[in-house]
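thought: fold this chain, then report.
action: predict
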Amino acid sequence: MVTTLRSERHQKLARWAKVVSERPSRIYMLPLQEHIAVALILNRAELLPHGEFTILQAVNTLEPEWLAAATQVERSLMLDIED
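observation:
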């Protein structure tokens, strides 16, 4: 169950990262945890919720499961770019 949940989060964040990279305004549709995670994955501080967070505050706001999934997605995306 934990692996499935992580996989679902990973897939969800990867999809949203792609959508938001193409249409940044779509990030404002996301709940807070996903919003922050996608902004961090894309390394786009200006996409953090209404400028309310520094990058460090955003990282500290994420629940551990979301932070782990975001890290995995970022790593996956970076590997795709390098290939």
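thought: worth noting. Residues 2-82 form one domain.
final: tokens above.
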